[in-house]
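Aggregate trends can hide what the representation actually does to any particular protein. For completeness, the protein is quoted in full, as a sequence line and a line of structure tokens.
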Amino acid sequence: MSVICFNGVMEQLKIVRVQAYTPELAKSLAELMGELSDSYAASEVPKDRLEAIIASPDRLQLIAEQQGQLVGAATLTLIAGIVATKVWLDDFIVSED
């Protein structure tokens, strides 16, 4: 749990790795992605796509929640190299609100 400050008001921000698909999560993620791109008009993130990310050992779907509301998300892809493991950050979005 992290504590952040917005306009002088301290708020708790919870960042978690998504462990399971739910229709509610898929709908909330789609709404959030709509803020990232006007071309994203899905009513929910496709179940097979979200489940593939969740099941992958090389990808993490992170979400940020504030007062029980989804306010951010990011998909991380782990890339194993000879020298080090790198992370590719994709679909990083924070709600306008």
